[in-house]
Amino acid sequence: MTYQLSAPDEHVVRSFFDTDFYKFTMGDFIFSNPNYANATVIFRLKCRTKNVKLGRVIPLKVLEMELDHAMQLKPTNSEIYYLRGMDVYGDRMLSEPYLQFLKTIELPPYKLNVTTDGDLELEFTGPWKSVTYWEIFALEIVNELYFRYLIKRHLTSPSERARYLMTGLSRFLDKVKIFKQYPNLTYSDFGTRRRASARHQEELVEIAANELPNQFKGTSNVYLANKLNLMPIGTSAHELSMVAAGLADITSNGDRDAIRASQHEVTDGWWKKFGFGLSIALTDTYGTRSVFETAPSELATDWKGTRHDSGDPLRYAEKTLQWYKRYGVNPQDKMIVFSDGRTVPTMIQALNYCRGKIKSTEGWGTNKTNDFEPRPDIGLIPLSLVVKPSSVNGRGLVKLSDNIAKAMGTPEDIERYKKYFDYDETYFEPCTY
């Protein structure tokens, strides 16, 4: 490999498949519910890394060019064929009406602004069935352009750039050596959204597939899964719970019980559509405590497991064990997917903690695909960037999380939702990834 981030004529987003698999599982779920499909949702970019001014690094014209390119993408006929044959979990997964919709999909336009302080404001508005796909495309583009232009600015010679980029490969190879010492440690690649570059991600995925054949379970990136004959990995994300709660907030005029019930309606609808194969519950949107105390028993007895995405992972594991035991469920038959800012040490720690108690696996993201020699002096550090829904049909949306540093929404809306869900979490950890 030539150690450069991309060729001059290479776009950041390579195809409509250059996204996370959960965009298609959620996409079908959203499309198949008329109340969801046509709701007007606004997604906004948020940089949670302090003192980073994206607008002072990324050239505005280049960003516009990449966004315009992504906006024109549609799945090819062969990609639709791939999705139509998707039976990874035993049955045909995606509905035909949804696939026909994807063939002619049009992404809504974006709004882009750079403030006088250098902050980047990026917003996408449209029907939920279409606008949802902007999430991963926008994250890929902003992350890669930030990394690319910082390197161009501060590492001026080809040899200096090559040496720096090699640190990403060498650091990953060191991690592979450690992985081999823990044969029961398994993971899936979740690194698309904050990767340093598409080329770097692809190289690391290929290495993992070859070097860790029994531990590397697949990738969330559908383009790479298709190209490299790997398992596409993914289920759902916070946006389902957030938008469902917002719609219930509107129709019920802020009725607490209706808003809480909307969460159970999502999991019930998900089970009816996808069944056991995609039954990994994401519990932290409004605090895991609320889910474990109020969810129907079927979430514990029937679902495959849960995904941890915020808060102390070992504390989460212990709460999960107690939840299963309360329903007479053997936790050893269930699974936790850890996916919050994972590193090799935290993965090993979780593996050891869960051993003999509950199955565990890992979703490894930023620390895999954007882990180079740290250069905080010039801003070359991984960013904590997210693109989340901020409103539906004009009503503000909220995410609380099991880490209050990840809370999103206006202060007024956040306080309302804390009351709706009896939220009392005090855990705070700055967002590294």
TrEMBL record:
One of its GO terms (molecular function) is glycosyltransferase activity. Residues 187-424 form the Nicotinate/nicotinamide phosphoribosyltransferase domain. GO terms for cellular component: cytosol. The keyword rRNA-binding does not apply. Pathway: Cofactor biosynthesis; NAD(+) biosynthesis; nicotinate D-ribonucleotide from nicotinate: step 1/1. It comes from the Bacteria. One of its GO terms (biological process) is NAD+ biosynthetic process via the salvage pathway. It catalyses: 5-phospho-alpha-D-ribose 1-diphosphate + nicotinate + ATP + H2O = nicotinate beta-D-ribonucleotide + ADP + phosphate + diphosphate. Belongs to the NAPRTase family. This is Nicotinate phosphoribosyltransferase. It comes from Candidatus Yanofskybacteria bacterium RIFCSPHIGHO2_01_FULL_41_26.
